[in-house]
Fold this sequence. Notes:
By secondary structure, this protein is an alpha/beta fold. It has 2 domains: 329 residues, 3-Layer(aba) Sandwich (Peroxisomal Thiolase, Chain A, domain 1); 46 residues. The chain contains 12 helices and 13 strands. The strands form 4 sheets. Strands 1-7-6-4-5 form a 5-stranded mixed sheet, with helices on both faces. A 4-stranded mixed sheet has the order 8-13-12-11, sandwiched between helices. The longest helix is centred in the last third of the chain and has 45 residues. It binds oxa(dethia)-CoA (UT7). The site of oxa(dethia)-CoA has 18 residues, from helix 2, helix 6 and helix 8.
Amino acid sequence: MSANNHHQRYAHIVGWGKYVPSNILTNDELAKRVDTSDVWIRERTGIRERRIATKETTASMALYAAQDALEVADVSPNEIDLVIVATSTPEYIFPATASIVQDQLGAQSAGAFDLSAACSGFVYGLSVGASMIRAGTYNNVLVIGSETFSRIINWKDRTTCILFGDGAGAVLLRGSDEFGGVLSSVLGSDGSGGELLEVPAGGSRNPASIETVMANLHTVRMNGREVYRFATRVMVDATKQALQKANIPLSELDMLVPHQANARIIDYAAKALNLPPEKVIKNLDRYGNTSAASIPLALVEAIEEKRVNPGDHLVFVGFGGGLSWGACALEWTEPTIKRATTPQRAAQSRLRYQWAHVKSFGHRVLRRVDAGVSHTLDRIEGSKNGDE
Ligand code: UT7
């Protein structure tokens, strides 16, 4: 994508939302489970606590974040053209988590797919969504990052279990002829580093078996030091490339929203880009690394703290498993003062989602009845033909 041609469609972020579980796990509590300490975790990562899902799943958190995004944008679910859920912790291998979210939102006219690019997933999703809008294919695209890493963590491995947390963030992209929104994207991959951060089993190469479960191969494995080295390199390069593609000088960057993996990685990038702390969003002290959810979660918090204003230039930059990385440069256009929801509108939304739920249930029942009746009719037909 390039920002050179102004006679085209632009993809603006017009809605945003987040969800985090209320259950908090502190460093001190972790230190009771594995050989670590609050001081070590804080000094080496910047993390103080993280949220851990109890009843929540990747789809339910994605749904709540998406509902908030639609509320902010004042867009009804049936206006959505596409739902993208970036996640490495989907509900199932298939069906896609995005299809579950589409159904529960009541987004009847939307296509839906999951996007697997680990911690870079949200930036990848934003790039795909924005490109589809700029091509004129779609007008309203929901891009969600949602993760339940707590379910794929080896809670006995102190080198990984201290890092991750659960949560979701969502944005609604909308097409417009007005200049602004997502102006460029840079996506990268180096598959030769795949084994540096992986879940070794559960896919077609090492399907689930008693052996894979016994060997703990369904949980995250990471070479932290190598990923750290890779992260510091690509974050700076990708940010510069995205800005260059969007014709925005580095001096005009107002806000960097980086993937929240380690405060030291973020500080390194901020220093290399000569950005003061107030221009860099950091919220991993409270959430840890929420993978594909971390950038939208950080963005929504920055908006809530009134740190994002129309006219601002932003860069979202992510990196992680794959190895993969990505950055998007944006010009923010939407007023960030959230319209106060009237009780009537809130009730309307509640009713709409309850109705979507009822309709979904009705469709399931009808499908079963239809299958049963069709089967019976086929049998009657078959036995009649046999009689003749
Ligand atoms: O979203 C994608 C990405 N993932 C990342 O971005 C992770 C990138 N990597 C990192 O953030 C860091 O490498 C870590 C936070 C994972 C580790 O920090 P580090 O400064 O690179 O530590 P290290 O791996 O070099 O380990 C230093 C020492 C080791 O002990 P020895 O070998 O020096 O005796 C580790 O065994 O710290 C030890 N250690 C711990 N000690 C207390 C490792 N984990 C822990 C722990 N508590 N939780």
